Amino acid sequence: MTIKKTTAGKTAAMLSMFALACGLLFTNCAKDGMTGPAGPAGTNGTNGTNGTNGNANVVSGTVTVTNWTYSSPSYYGDITYASITQSIMDKGAILVYLSNGSGGYSQLPLTIYPLPTYSQTYEVVTAFNNVRIYITDSDLTAPNAPTAKTFKIVVIAAGMVKPNVNVKNYADVKAAYSLAD
Length: 181
Hints:
By secondary structure, this protein is of the alpha+beta class. Helix content is 19%, strand content 33%. The chain has three helices and nine strands, in the order αβββαββββββα. The chain has a five-stranded antiparallel sheet, with no helix packed on it. Strands 1-9-4-5 form a four-stranded antiparallel sheet.
């Protein structure tokens, strides 16, 4: 009498053989002999130089805006600044200063009087990952495009804002938060 196997029977037989082979492979390993002695310890690497202490919760940077867009009555320049997160927007502080070209900075908003009857106002609007600087002339006419302007941006996380720091004075902010230029 001949027994004919079906396809399901062949599959079951193959799976059984595979399971038996795996079981023998993983359970019949034996550890022969004793464990050898530990190898010698490696040599230590050289120590790097220590960096200056900083504050991960306060970020500052210098940015120069060269591309200005006119939208009556102001020119504006956008600065992408990844340190401005939603948490900073909600509970932190963002300080923006205009360079005077001689190492000093003045906080925005700021009005400059090049003439007794004429002024330029610098204003700042912040958003997630962005700072936008507006420059408006007092006569509200279309002035010449601004030249390159350099700004210092300081981003302070919630809980790190110090109440007795004169934020209008960049030198005081720099000293209070140990900022590097």
